[in-house]
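Saturday, quiet lab. Running sequence design on the C-alpha cells for the scaffold JK sent over.
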C-alpha cells in the first residue's frame, strides 16, 4: 500500500469494486506485522528483535527471504538469496510492542486502512491477522529454542512492571538474586539457555519464580498490545472484529503460543469472535482448535484455512496412512461438515490456484477437491439460512487448561485434552464441549458448565484452587486427574494437594515411591454411567489415596487383595468432585467409558442418541452434532469409519423440550424427504448413511 509517500489504496480499490459488482460480501484482513511494513520504515526506526543471547535481527521483511535457511525450516520458500543464514523465518513475525516509534507508525497505518474501507457497504467484519507474536522464540540452528524480548524497551518496561508489585529487596528475595540488587537498573529478565541466570549473568536461585514473572509480564504486554490495535479499529468503525485463531492455543506452549494468547483478547472492546483453523490431519487435533475458540468467544466461529488440496500440506502428508493422503476428498468432506456440526460456520479454503494447497492447478485444471468444494457450496446453498442462521448449542462440558501448568509442562495438558475431546466427539457430546482456561475461571464462566474435566493441573494458584472448589460447591461436577494441585504458580511444592481441591475431593493424594505403569490390577466397584461394576481398569497407578471423610465413595480399587482406592467421588455442596489416582490408559476402553459416563452422572445425557438399527453403539463410526434455530434444530451426521450404516436416531426429548402430544417434522435437507416423530415413535427415526456420507436434518415442530 505504501507508494513512497503515502498509503495508496488504488490497487485494492480495484478488488473491492469487483467484489461489489459480483454481489459478494467481504472480510478485510489487516496484517499489522512490523516486518511487513516497507523496508524504509524498519531501517529508519531500527525495529528489531533481541534473543536471550543478545543476538539481534532487524525486522525486515526482505530479510525473511534473504536470511532464511530453506532446507532447515520452511519448504514453502523456494530460494535462498545468500546473506546470513537464519533457521527460523517466523522470528520476523515478532513485534517491537514497547517501541514508541512502532506504535506511532502502526496507529497511523490502522487509521488509514479503516478510514478508507469502512464505508464499503459489502464489508462484514475486520479480521486481525492471527500469526502475530511479540515474543515468539527463535529456533537457532543446531542450538535450539532461544527466548526473545530482551531488547532495551522490553527490559525497561519489565522493571517498571515489577516496581509496581515489589520492593527491590522483596524481589531479590523472591528470585533468590545473588548478589542482591542495589538499584532497579540492575534488574534483568531471566534466561533459559543457561541455568539460574538473568540476562546479564546474575545468579537467580529461585529461577522458577523469575520465569513466572517474566512470562506474566510478556503475556500482559502482548494482550495489551493487540487490545490497543483492536481499540483503534473500534474507535473508527463499529463492525465486529474476528480473528483467524491458529496460534495462542491454550496449553500448546511449544514456542508458537506461549504469550500470544488470543483467548485473552476477546470481548466487546477487542476481538468479538474467534475463528477456527482446521488444517490438522486428525479429528482430535481439529476439535482442539474448535474447542479453544468456542470456549473463549461467542459465535459465529468462521472456519479458516481448511485444505484446498490436503496433499499439499508440507508437514502433515509425509505418512501415507494420513487421512489427508489416503483420500483427500473424504478428508475435506468430513472435516468441513464435522466442524459445522460442532460449532463452526462457513469455510475459507487455503489457496484457490497454484501449487500445493490449492484446488486449481497452476495450468488451470481442477483438482479432485475442487469438485468436492463445489458440492459443499451447492449443499450449503440448498440448506440456505437454516445453516447460516443457526447457532451452536450452549456449552455444558469443559476441559480445563491452566497457564501455570502449561508453562512448566508444555503440551501435557493439551495431549490429554485431545483424547477427551475425541471421546466426546465419538460419543456425540462434542457440539456442547469446549476448552476453558484460568481466564474463564476469573471471568466467572465456570458455572456455565455442568462438567469440568481437569486432567492435568499439578501447578495451580491458590485463587484458581478456590474457584474450582466454589464451582463444585455451587453444583458443578469436577474431575481431577492425578497430581492435581501439588505446586503453586511459582513452581514451589505445597507439600500436599492444595487445600481448596482437597476439600472438594475429600481425599489426600501421595505420589507412589514406585508407580505401576500399564497395570490391569484395578477394578470398578459400582455402576457409574455406562461403566459397570466389575469393569477392569487399566492404566498407570500413580498415587495412594487417603479418604478424609466417610462421605467419600470409592468408585475403583487397586488390587483385589489390597483393595486400595484409586478413583473416588465426594458429594460436596450441591456438586461432586471425582478424583483419579490413576492415569487411565487413553487407548483402553475404560478411558472412553469413564469420560462418557461423567456427564451422565451429572444428569447430562447427549442431545441425540445414535445407534445401529439393532441398538448397538456406533461411537467413533458416526459423528453427530446439533445446532439451534428459532423454531427448531439441525442435526448433522458424518460417516467417519468407511462403512455403510443403518441407523436409529433418537432425540433427547427432555433436553430439546419436546412435549408430550407434540409432533415434530424431520426433513432431510439435501434430499427433501421427511418423517414425523412423536412420543409414540420414541422421538426416533431410522436412516441410512453411506461411506463418507453426510446427512443434514431440519427438525421443526409439526
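Result came back. Writing it out in full:
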Amino acid at each position: 500500500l505504501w507508494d513512497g509517500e503515502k498509503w495508496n489504496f488504488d490497487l485494492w480499490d480495484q478488488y473491492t469494486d469487483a467484489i461489489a459488482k459480483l454481489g459478494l460480501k467481504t472480510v478485510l484482513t489487516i496484517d499489522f506485522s512490523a516486518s511487513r511494513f516497507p523496508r524504509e520504515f524498519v531501517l529508519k526506526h531500527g525495529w528489531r528483535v533481541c534473543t536471550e543471547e543478545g543476538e539481534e535481527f532487524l525486522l525486515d521483511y526482505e530479510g525473511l527471504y534473504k536470511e532464511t535457511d530453506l532446507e532447515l525450516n520452511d519448504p514453502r520458500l523456494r530460494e535462498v538469496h545468500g546473506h546470513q543464514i537464519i533457521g527460523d523465518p517466523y522470528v520476523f513475525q515478532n513485534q517491537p510492542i514497547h517501541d514508541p516509534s512502532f506504535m506511532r507508525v502502526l496507529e497511523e497505518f490502522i487509521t488509514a486502512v479503516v478510514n478508507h474501507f469502512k464505508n464499503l457497504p459489502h464489508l462484514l467484519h475486520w479480521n486481525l491477522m492471527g500469526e502475530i507474536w511479540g515474543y515468539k522464540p527463535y529456533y537457532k540452528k543446531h542450538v535450539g529454542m532461544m527466548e526473545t524480548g530482551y531488547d532495551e524497551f522490553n527490559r525497561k518496561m519489565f522493571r517498571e512492571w515489577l516496581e509496581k508489585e515489589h520492593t527491590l529487596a522483596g524481589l531479590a528475595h523472591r528470585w533468590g538474586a545473588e548478589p542482591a540488587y542495589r538499584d532497579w537498573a540492575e534488574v534483568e529478565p531471566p534466561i533459559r539457555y543457561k541455568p539460574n541466570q538473568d540476562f546479564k549473568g546474575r545468579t537467580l536461585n529461585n529461577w522458577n519464580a523469575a520465569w513466572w514473572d517474566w512470562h506474566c509480564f510478556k503475556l500482559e504486554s502482548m494482550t495489551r498490545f493487540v487490545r490497543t490495535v483492536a481499540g483503534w479499529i473500534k474507535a473508527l468503525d463499529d463492525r465486529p472484529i474476528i480473528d483467524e485463531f491458529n496460534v495462542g492455543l491454550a496449553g500448546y506452549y511449544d514456542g508458537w503460543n506461549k504469550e500470544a494468547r488470543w483467548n485473552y483478547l476477546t470481548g466487546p472492546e477487542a476481538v468479538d469472535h474467534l475463528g477456527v483453523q482446521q488444517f490438522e490431519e486428525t479429528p482430535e487435533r481439529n476439535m482442539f482448535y474448535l474447542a479453544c475458540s468456542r470456549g473463549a468467544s461467542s459465535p459465529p466461529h468462521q472456519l479458516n484455512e481448511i485444505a484446498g488440496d490436503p496433499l499439499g500440506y508440507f508437514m502433515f502428508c509425509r505418512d501415507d496412512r494420513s487421512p489427508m493422503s489416503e483420500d483427500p476428498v473424504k478428508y475435506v468432506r468430513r472435516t468441513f461438515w464435522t466442524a459445522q456440526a460442532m460449532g463452526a460456520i462457513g469455510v475459507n479454503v487455503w489457496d484457490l490456484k497454484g501449487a500445493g494447497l490449492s484446488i486449481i492447478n497452476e495450468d488451470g485444471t481442477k483438482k479432485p477437491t475442487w469438485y468436492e468444494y463445489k458440492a459443499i457450496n451447492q449443499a450449503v446453498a440448498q440448506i440456505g439460512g437454516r445453516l447460516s442462521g443457526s447457532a451452536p448449542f450452549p456449552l455444558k462440558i469443559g476441559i480445563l487448561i491452566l497457564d501455570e501448568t502449561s508453562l512448566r509442562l508444555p503440551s501435557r495438558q493439551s495431549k490429554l485434552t485431545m483424547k477427551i475431546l475425541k471421546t466426546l466427539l465419538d460419543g456425540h457430546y462434542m457440539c456442547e464441549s469446549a476448552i476453558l482456561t484460568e481466564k474463564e475461571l476469573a471471568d466467572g464462566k465456570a458455572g456455565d458448565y455442568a462438567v469440568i474435566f481437569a486432567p492435568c493441573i499439578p501447578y495451580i494458584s491458590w485463587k484458581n484452587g478456590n474457584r474450582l472448589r466454589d464451582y463444585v460447591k455451587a453444583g458443578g461436577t469436577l474431575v481431577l486427574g492425578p497430581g492435581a494441585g501439588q505446586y503453586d504458580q511459582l513452581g514451589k511444592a505445597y507439600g500436599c494437594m492444595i487445600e481448596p481441591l482437597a476439600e472438594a475431593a475429600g481425599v489426600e493424594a501421595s505420589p507412589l515411591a514406585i508407580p505401576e505403569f500399564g497395570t490391569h490390577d484395578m477394578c470398578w466397584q459400582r455402576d457409574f454411567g455406562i461403566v459397570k461394576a466389575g469393569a477392569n481398569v487399566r492404566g498407570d497407578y500413580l498415587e495412594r489415596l487417603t479418604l478424609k471423610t466417610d462421605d467419600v465413595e470409592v468408585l475403583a480399587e487397586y488390587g483385589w487383595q489390597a483393595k486400595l482406592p484409586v478413583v473416588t467421588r465426594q458429594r460436596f455442596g450441591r456438586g461432586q468432585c471425582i478424583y483419579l489416582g490413576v492415569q487411565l490408559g487413553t487407548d483402553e476402553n475404560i478411558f472412553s467409558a469413564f469420560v462418557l459416563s461423567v456427564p451422565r452422572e451429572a444428569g447430562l445425557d447427549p442431545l441425540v442418541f445414535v445407534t445401529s438399527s439393532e441398538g448397538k453403539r456406533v461411537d467413533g463410526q458416526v459423528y453427530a452434532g446439533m445446532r439451534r434455530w428459532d423454531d427448531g434444530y439441525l442435526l448433522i451426521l458424518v460417516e467417519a469409519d468407511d462403512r455403510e450404516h443403518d441407523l436409529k436416531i433418537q432425540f433427547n426429548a427432555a433436553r430439546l423440550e419436546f412435549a408430550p402430544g407434540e409432533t415434530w417434522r424431520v426433513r432431510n435437507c439435501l434430499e427433501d424427504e421427511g418423517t414425523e416423530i412423536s412420543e409414540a415413535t420414541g422421538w426416533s427415526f431410522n436412516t441410512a448413511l453411506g461411506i463418507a456420507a453426510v446427512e443434514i436434518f431440519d427438525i421443526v415442530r409439526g
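Notes for JK: The radius of gyration is 27 Å. The CA atoms of residues 28 and 126 lie 5 Å apart. Ask whether to fix the surface positions before the next round.
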